[in-house]
Each structure stands twice: as C-alpha cells, then as structure tokens.
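Give me the fold.
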Amino acid sequence: MQAGFIIGITKSMLLLDLWMVITSILEIKYEITIYKKVLFFAIGLFLIFYNINRYEKKYQYYKSKWGVYVGNRKKIQIFLTFFIVIFSWVFVFILGFIFNKYE
C-alpha cells in the first residue's frame, strides 16, 4: 500500500511539473484559484487510490520479478527509483525559480 501511495504522489508531482512547463513555455498567465487547487487535489487523490488498487496484493509478483536483479543492476534500479521520486519533487522548485513562479 505504501508503494502505491508513493507512486500516486510521484505521478501527481510529475503532472504538476508538466503543467508548469507547458504554461511557462506557452507563456500562459493564470491565477491559481481555489477551483484549480481542488481540481489538482482531486486528481492527486484519484491517482493515489488508483495506484493503491492497481498494485494491491501484487507484492509477491513484483518481488519475484525484481528479485533476479543482483549487483550493479540492482544498484542502478534502486538509484533510478529514488532519482525519479526525488527529482519529481525537486523539479517543481527548479521550474518555479527558472520561470519566476515564486514572486
């Protein structure tokens, strides 16, 4: 269940990153209203519950599938997993500073 939650949060953050990139590149000026916050929150909750239901009771399947990784390949997979999760959070702040969203 924790993995499904983390996957859902990461997808939500990547969706926010994509939104920030598109609006900044196309120079779309918008005001963040309560409706947009509620919509993004609802999408985030949907992604969390969708991923929890999708990956529920599949731990043994994925454990057997990923259990064959050893040595450097396992280290690379672990690094990529943490990199994606951390980068999705940090990228929001990087984009904010690049496109002056925090003024």
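The mean pLDDT is 77.
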